[in-house]
Amino acid sequence: MGLDPWTWAVLALAVFAGATVQGLVGLGIGLVAAPITTLVEPSLMPALLLWLALVMPMVTLAREHDAIDWPGLWWSLPTRVLGTGVGVALVATFTTGQLGVAVALMVLVVVVLTVRTIVVPINRTSLLVTGFVSGVTGTATSIGGPPMALLYQHRDPRQLRCTLAVYFLIGAALSLAGLAIGDALHGRELEVAAILSPTLALGFIASRLLHRRVDPAHLRSGVLAVCALGSIVLLVRSIG
Description:
By secondary structure, the chain is mainly alpha-helical.
């Protein structure tokens, strides 16, 4: 598949770290792994992480699924479809450098918004807007979870994890279908995702082991710092 051992190792570590974080707080694989993947092998973006984002929620929903906010999903998913179409159009026009800038800026915006702990009321309007934004960013950069996570961040943690899991599952499927229709989806990304799947499983197991040992506040700060640093490096390289 044209990847050297160093690239495989970096990708595996990024997926493991992202899966661990997502298992702990409900999201993270795109936020953590997207900047790193774009740095080492941009040709795999965004499809690789969308394939992995299709698998991870299934594990979460197998463990807990009784706290899903179905009404919120019914309002956000239709506009997710519209946003997917816009995201496909962007993927078709992105150069490698532009993709790097888009991913980096998306992560940095999420970090800033999260640090400022902005509170957005959950209503029909916010769900419709969030669904559309998530569709665009999720399809174009593989980072579609943070808009929904920011909206639900003050809800019960179980509802956050369950609702995001369903949203990630359906959203990733929509984005992959959109990319396939736009002829921007290739078998190579699926093959790499299949090979990296064991590290996804290991990350989820690690999250279960760390669940009661890690202070969520410290974890959140550490993840945001790592994401911000990786995005700044990616942004500098992409602009340069």
